[in-house]
Amino acid sequence: MLVSSLQMDIVPGDPAANRANVAEAVRQEADSTRPDVIVLPEMWTTAYTLPDLPFTADQPGSETIPFLQKLAATHHIHLIGGSIAWKENGDIFNRALVINNHGELIYQYDKLHLVPMLDEPAYLTGGRHKCRIFELDGIKMGVIICYDLRFPELLRDLALQGAQVIFVVAEWPDARRDHWYHLQIARAIENQCYIVSCNRTGSYNGTDFAGTSMIINPWGHVLGEGHRYHEQSVHRTIQPDQVSEIRSRVPIFESRRPEFYP
Ligand SMILES: O=C(O)CCC(=O)C(=O)O
């Protein structure tokens, strides 16, 4: 399976401009690289314009989901559609979207862990549902959002559900780039699965973002790594058979003693 992560800058608070940019980036990537899966970053319609989200968030009937569905079907690619601000019944969630190459929305996930450093809890509601796996082309996958990466129990739960690939969509700041880099490798090693991430580039409101989107194999080798500052596509072929191969070589899932820890 060929996977492309499109790390990109985001126009603050302008969903229409960002949809136009995403449409063009996906078209170019589909035509040049011909990937099976394309991954977008976190909150790519609005960036972190939190006080404005009541006016700019998507809601039932809004444009972004049909836009992504059409994009996926037109180019016949699976889309890990990053995340968008989603307003429903007075709450705003940070919602990840997964759309298959027929244009069907097959999975959505609301970010469970809100970021105190960004004052997210003042503007967003944390997810109310467990993070679950989904399947694309018979491969078991999960998606988490940015700060979720700091919670090893969340990714372990996905691995225990059978995830062979975990996508991380993000707006991770450059000030903590070391954490971003090493936590992804650690999560790949400890869960013996692929990690594929898409982080934004550029700056907003005095914060520079870290780029460095990554594709890491279940042994913890970095197969692909994006530039720290520039927009680019990071694409590699992943081989989900490696997950079972490495899990049998170092059988940590058989050695677990869950009766002694939560
Ligand atoms: O955990 C971090 O350092 C960054 C998290 C973050 O920026 C986010 O979740 O959007």
UniProtKB/TrEMBL annotation:
<dbReference type="Pfam" id="PF00795">
    <property type="entry name" value="CN_hydrolase"/>
</dbReference>
<dbReference type="InterPro" id="IPR003010">
    <property type="entry name" value="C-N_Hydrolase"/>
</dbReference>
<keyword id="KW-0378">Hydrolase</keyword>
<dbReference type="InterPro" id="IPR036526">
    <property type="entry name" value="C-N_Hydrolase_sf"/>
</dbReference>
<protein>
    <submittedName>
        <fullName>Predicted amidohydrolase</fullName>
    </submittedName>
</protein>
<dbReference type="InterPro" id="IPR001110">
    <property type="entry name" value="UPF0012_CS"/>
</dbReference>
<comment type="similarity">
    <text>Belongs to the carbon-nitrogen hydrolase superfamily. NIT1/NIT2 family.</text>
</comment>
<dbReference type="GO" id="GO:0016787">
    <property type="term" value="F:hydrolase activity"/>
</dbReference>
<feature type="domain" description="CN hydrolase">
    <location>
        <begin position="1"/>
        <end position="240"/>
    </location>
</feature>
